[in-house]
């Protein structure tokens, strides 16, 4: 059934109020529903918090198409890229694992706040046998959920085949971030952690490196199963531009070229409590230091992108920017993403 | 990684770095781990100690030391100096012989291995044919006589180690003239002892294990005398004039034999069993020393009644009616007597006995009545009680230094005043640049103060905290309670006592203020003692306070050890550091951090539950802060104490092994003892290994969370006078860092001096910083306006430091195990950081600010961070820009206890334990280098008189 009603664009209000309004309009006061809308690309995107609600309202042109599904029989996978237009998209075909349809679909619980949990990155610069996986630990309560072990792999060297020691994934914890992404598997060999090669490092060293990077962990692996590798396509060279298209995190990972370098400093923000007041982010003491007020604004503004536009703008900004040891001049786009750190309580 | 790809290679800075930093391991302090052999040169006045790991160390006058290492890392079995030479021969347990020389090289002597040699028998002979059991360097300095298991004695030329086959003394040749019936009963078998005649170098005395002793004439290649011993032989010793010799035996007896020209087969003069008549243990070594007054000294090792005293490690000294059995705390490896070595002297006149026991060196003054022990200037047993922590204080003011020495000298009155008798060589190292103290905390509740200024780590003073508490252990437990008429006349000597009766007494943290003489120590059961230096004995009550670190938190139950009970009423303290305040943390968990501010008279302490601040002037607790996460049950139950008790039970089982040892025969028996332990060790290792194989090694990858265990564990405490609230007023502050990556800052209000006793010290929490990576905070430091670390309390008052810059803005450096971060103050904003773990996979274990001076110019010095990582690497990181300057591998990463024991000094030196009993000293600085540099001069060889090294004498007297 269809309803049509109007909202004041300048004062959309809160998502809770909007949700109540929908229930009221549809006379379904006690039914849990999923709310979605179509964006300008024709993608079906969810509305479940203030941020994406505001985003949705701001994209209305002037009409905003809202889709409401009963929660019990909702098809979560309906959300995402090209869901509405169904047009042939080379990229999405390439990226969607071949066995996607054979596998039972991984049902993720309805997230309170959609955000990416993992991605495959740097496809265009890595050998096809390697996979660089980024796990977004921040903002999720899920454990990373994997174990590593010592092992050995066979390498081709100038002296012929040689057995060399290596680090391997030994176990995935059911329900953990690593398992739920489907991008890491037992017996995958770990080659790099956040851009640092692990060869020559001990298991304990690699463990410490991974834990130190745990809030923004980028692991380059040689998958034990080499059949699901990304097939290089001539088009993918400009892949960084592609990631503006939103994707469903669980099944269609983003491609973020050169993300690694730009993100090096992004993994943490410390918190300060002054005189037993409210916890606050510790700002950067950069030459262009921001007042707290402006930070707050930026946070609100930027977080409209949470979950759905995880990447490309800041990525582009950042890969160009240099990070010197003395003064980390970080652009605010970048920073805003981690402002979610405020939700982490002391 | 990029930071290392482009670290702006500034050639000026690179050159400066070369002038500032340099890594050297300079000297090993303490007592060698697992000593296995002892040698002494009466000619050079040098002592040599060999170890089971193949090290050989030479010691002479204080400061004169040399070290060598056999490539094979095999146990050193025997050490023999070549008479009248700067050379020595070592025998390893792989039957190889090694010749070492002391040679001068650019002004200083060095110990070098010259030759090696393995005795080879004819093809097809059993290995025992050439297994060396006795070595005799002949006084001609040209040959070595090598007694073997087969009974043959081989002769090799020196220094080439060429075997002189025609001079071999075969057992057949020896047996030719021995009576038939004796021959039949006993064949020669193993050569137990070889001794050259003291007057006639052509005669050597050969002792075989079955009891046969012969005098062999080297000129005529024949036996001149037979001595038909009936007991299994252990050792032989010539009387000084060569008219008699003495043999000691397996049954605990010794026998004197005459040597006369008319009787070729003499009967024994006297056969004595000193601790008979019941079966006794073997006497494995014996000395017969003549004196002017006629009464000889008979000194022998072992011989105790087997049943009742068989487990004692004893050496008995008999002189007329005086007899003492020195009872050592560990197995006696070997001993020697220092006596008049001038050939012209008529008598031996022994002056000292030097005993190498497994865990310590004991020297007994034989000239002074009562035979007191001599205080060794080196080879201190650091591990008398296990070391639990250490603290280094550089550049001690002379006044404090003298007061500590004076307090220590009152403790050492029972030592002999004899100058150190082993005084060979000359120390030519420059005088140490400053007076440095190394304080070690021990498991038995003592703190030992070591002079760490130079090459000889020397005990100055020992402080015990035990008196403050009521413990089960009777302080007089270890004293010798035997009465006058006790037999055998045992006397305990030595200080090694590794078994703590109450592990709660263990010292965990030490802080000494060198300007005020205030000392605070904290221990395993949450006890914090504040002490003051008093030059007199005193009796007073120790003020007692309790700090409930859980505050209002309810429903917790501490399952660890109880707190220590305190003594009521006044306690008598000897001169030295005397406690006047005791704070006990509740729950009584181990104190994990400690800080003292002697100017503000405040002491801060932290445990796994929280931290507190105590005003030791008003003797009042200022505040406590609980850092415990409500869900952290582990920290509450006190699993640390569980770990402790496991350690304890392990130690007890070792104690049992030790006790159950049946000390049997000297050489073989000796190795039998150790093999027993080795076997037990091997078995244990194997079991541990199997356990490991069952569970494949894997590591969990998980982000840290606030709910992890031990996040509240307080790792570091720091006092600073800085800008905490606003940039116009600075104030005293206390900073605390936890295991969970939290930093707390409290602003303090300390009343001015004139109202110090009237107004309370107030504290208020001003800041709390949560590091997002949640790694343990191991160091906090405030840099002043010039980016210089704030000076220590009272440092400015004593004109030893520039006043800090209070005009410019201060910065806060927080060092976690994973990162270094600099924040601005008073408004906390992050300025820069250096990630260590994320990039290199190593973690910070120790961090200190060190001052590095340039070796080129006197007027340049800078402050840097010296960092030790869990991989055993040392990194130097610049301040305030946090740039890695240089990195040195220092400790093996498997050596966890070595890494944990490391302590840095303020001037770029450091110490770490290489064994329970030895500190390795290292230096990161080009300017401050403490290493042995010494000369051993060859005294005149031609005149056979012993020429004493004059300078060596002077050195010893210093």
Automatic annotation (TrEMBL), chain A:
Cited Pfam families: PB1, PDZ
Superkingdom of the organism of origin: Eukaryota
Domain PB1: 1-71
Residue ranges, compositional bias (Low complexity): 234-252
GO biological process, one term: cell division
Family: Belongs to the PAR6 family.
Protein name per UniProt: PAR6B protein
Species this chain originates from: Hemiprocne comata
TrEMBL record, chain B:
TM segment ranges: none
GO cellular component: cortical actin cytoskeleton; plasma membrane
Pfam families noted in UniProt: LLGL, WD40
Biased amino acid composition, Basic residues: 651-669
UniProt keyword annotation of Cell inner membrane present: no
Compartments (UniProt record): Cytoplasm
GO molecular function, one term: GTPase activator activity
Domain Lethal giant larvae homologue, chain residue ranges per copy: 272-372
SUPFAM superfamilies: WD40 repeat-like
Family listed: Belongs to the WD repeat L(2)GL family.
Oligomeric form and interacting partners: Interacts with GPSM2/LGN, PRKCI/aPKC and PARD6B/Par-6. The complex is enhanced during mitosis. Interacts with DCAF1.
The protein's role, per its UniProt record: Part of a complex with GPSM2/LGN, PRKCI/aPKC and PARD6B/Par-6, which may ensure the correct organization and orientation of bipolar spindles for normal cell division. This complex plays roles in the initial phase of the establishment of epithelial cell polarity.
Protein name (Swiss-Prot/TrEMBL): LLGL scribble cell polarity complex component 2
Native source organism of the sequence: Hemiprocne comata
Taxonomic lineage from the root: Eukaryota, Metazoa, Chordata, Craniata, Vertebrata
Gene field: Llgl2
